Amino acid sequence: MTMEFTDRVSRVEPSATLAISALATELEAEGADIVDLSVGEPDFPTPENIVAAGKDAMDAGHTGYTTSAGILELREAIADKLADDGLEHDSDEIIVTPGAKQALYEVVQALVEDGDEVVLLDPAWVSYEAMVKMAGGDLTRVDLSETDFQLEPALDELAAAVSDETELLVVNSPSNPTGAVYSDAALEGVRDLAVEHDLTVISDEIYKEITYGVEPTSLGTLEGMADRTVTVNGFSKAYSMTGWRLGYFAGPEELIDQAGKLHSHSVSSAVNFVQHAGLEALETEAAVTEMVTAFEERRDLVVDLLAEHDVDVAVPEGAFYMMLPVAEDDQAWCEGAIEDAHVATVPGSAFGTPGYARISYAASEARLEEGIERLAEEGYL
Ligand SMILES: Cc1ncc(COP(=O)(O)O)c(C=O)c1O
């Protein structure tokens, strides 16, 4: 029998990072010591108090289904956290999801249909493109690589890319893969365009808690944005909880009603005891500060080490990634770097920006030093 697959899935390519991780696995099986700078997750364990809260919740019997949108205590705690950031949302304007990825998927499915135009700021996290394509949308991409990945100097390019036909704009600050944090002036520029063209904007704030000396503004706090912004966040990065799968989105009630249908008919709810652990996470401060401090020290270390080899990078102000300028054929560069130097990175073309490789500095200082040294020794810097 030959199965027939939908256009929806056929339109989407497997992740470009797969070739790199396949190579890494192959080399590791042959005994190679790979310095893995390709991972998108903190290298710290989930803080103990959060793990304990998850276990306690299981012991207390929180193992059944919950309300589809998530337990009320967690939605109220999220509403309080958002209020601290200046975003006003009632608990019924929030849906708790298994990861921010599911939140984004549901929002895109609820807003984008065949032929709708969606604007991305490149380089952009890999899954936005796939999600939009699966929903049938068409992508318009604005390249930020000429402006050190900053949005403010590229507002004219953004203005040229959006029109009354645009359905959705996705903004991710701090950004994966660049670590850029957009200035208030940049966000105000986004607001002006969104109001002028009546756009909905997704503000993916999953790295908001991981910044170095800057306070990112939440887009939804700007005048005129409350009823057109969907704020997405999650627990994976700030609390090192990637495998727990917990995230959320907050937005206007009519979006919550529509996306809520998708949510209840697909995942039902996020995992019950994980939601209870999430409540504890929102109370956790010291462990988060410790992780952010470590990331900042590693960022400085990598920037300094690269400078010693005359490599200039746009210094990230958030998240734990930076874009390394490499050969034009970045896929070949990344494959070579892993084969020759045994250092794994992700090609910039996976994010829509060839000529770069994304380095994740969610690795120990010793491994980061080792990785940079090997890249230099093998002639990759
Ligand atoms: C920009 C961005 N958004 C969303 C996600 C999804 O995170 P999760 O589904 O683990 O909450 C990620 C994960 O890498 C990300 O980098």
UniProtKB/TrEMBL annotation:
It is an enzyme of class 2 (transferase). PROSITE patterns: AA_TRANSFER_CLASS_1 (PS00105). Residues 33-375 form the Aminotransferase class I/classII large domain. Its EC number is 2.6.1.-. GO terms for biological process: amino acid metabolic process. It holds the Pfam family Aminotran_1_2. GO terms for molecular function: pyridoxal phosphate binding; transaminase activity. The keyword Transferase applies. CDD domains: AAT_like (cd00609). The keyword Magnesium does not apply. Its cofactor is pyridoxal 5'-phosphate. Keywords: Aminotransferase, Pyridoxal phosphate, Transferase. InterPro entries: Aminotransferase_I/II_large, AspAT/PAT-like, NHTrfase_class1_PyrdxlP-BS, PyrdxlP-dep_Trfase, PyrdxlP-dep_Trfase_major, PyrdxlP-dep_Trfase_small. It comes from the Archaea. Belongs to the class-I pyridoxal-phosphate-dependent aminotransferase family. Homodimer. This is Aminotransferase. The lineage of its organism: Archaea, Methanobacteriati, Methanobacteriota, Stenosarchaea group, Halobacteria.
